[in-house]
């Protein structure tokens, strides 16, 4: 009999996926089988229609209606690279923070070296949240972009991106938000807060398969944003240059059709259940986990104390325990799966003081975790830490 997995690695990729996602992927693999936007037979048209509907589901989830401004790619990293490489020019100044994932930090390091851009790294406050005023103070003549995550993938701290957007708008600076850890978990209404570029994974909170990512663009940034990949789009094939139309400008080569059909089903599922209801459930489990952990000896919990300022990502360190050893013990003895290490966010650990001690042990909750699973996890931790 397969042992029960208690999966707490949803910040890496969500699991399990709802049955409708599995069925949608299977439907493509077994029935449709075709590429999108290339051919005119029935199945190809159906794939094209469903991918168009995936754009619609995502646009509506974020409160917008312009489907062509939803761009698909391989993952969150791919979309962030498009945003950063596509907008920055030689000598530009960028304001970012020390809580970013390597998918922002590394492209910026590359651009520092190759395009001589200059980067200011703003630290968060004690609770892991960045004060918008500190972002404003870092803006100077030549600042082209603010690049910030919506939620830290280490501490779960929610960043005030709406307030930061107001500053960006007032100061005439473009803004890129990494919504990898917030998409599907938190509402972000882009009609009210039209952030220039919002990039995210399709395979985390949006419940799609691995190999999917998306970015929502504001129309005004499109002419300034260069494509990063050129190639076949199935449109204007007689032309030797990349078409300027959306989404073709940024989508070359065959799309991951099974993945995007799965993503379409995942987002539809979220919209039916509502982000608010799903998040309420995840946070109920998170609250119970945090409460139980506070009673454990030698455990240090990171991130905001105020539950309203965090999502279901809980990072801890335990005195005298290596986070990797703890992760292995939880998995091998109890089937409890979480992640140890730096979680690709090294500067966050410099700030937390955990860089030299193996990082943190991270429990990232998803919509399918349950209160009994939390109880079993706390029991397992009590047993190991005895
Ligand atoms: N940003 C953040 C905050 C993340 O947590 C992650 C994934 N760990 C990414 C970006 C990269 O997303 P992907 O794995 O889809 O490339």
Protein described:
By secondary structure, this protein is α/β, with parallel strands linked by helices. The protein has two domains: 19-273, Type I PLP-dependent aspartate aminotransferase-like (Major domain) (Aspartate Aminotransferase, domain 2, 3-Layer(aba) Sandwich); 275-385, Alpha-Beta Complex (Aspartate Aminotransferase, domain 1). Helix content is 39%, strand content 15%. Helix 2 (42-61) crosses helix 7 (257-273) and helix 8 (275-294) packs parallel to helix 11 (371-385). It is globular.
Topology:
Blueprint: E1 6-7, H1 19-32, H2 42-61, E2 70-73, H3 76-87, E3 93-97, H4 102-115, E4 118-122, H5 132-138, E5 143-149, H6 161-171, E6 174-178, E7 197-201, E8 213-217, H7 257-273, H8 275-294, E9 299-301, E10 313-318, H9 323-334, E11 336-337, E12 339-341, H10 346-352, E13 360-364, H11 371-385
Parallel strand pairs: 1-11, 3-4, 3-5, 5-6, 6-7
Antiparallel strand pairs: 2-8, 7-8, 9-10, 10-13, 12-13
Helix pairs in contact: 1-7, 2-7, 3-4, 5-6, 8-11, 9-11
* Quaternary assembly: single chain
- Summed up, the helix count is 11
Describe the global form: globular
List ligands, each type once: 4'-deoxy-4'-aminopyridoxal-5'-phosphate
Order of helical and strand elements: EHHEHEHEHEHEEEHHEEHEEHEH
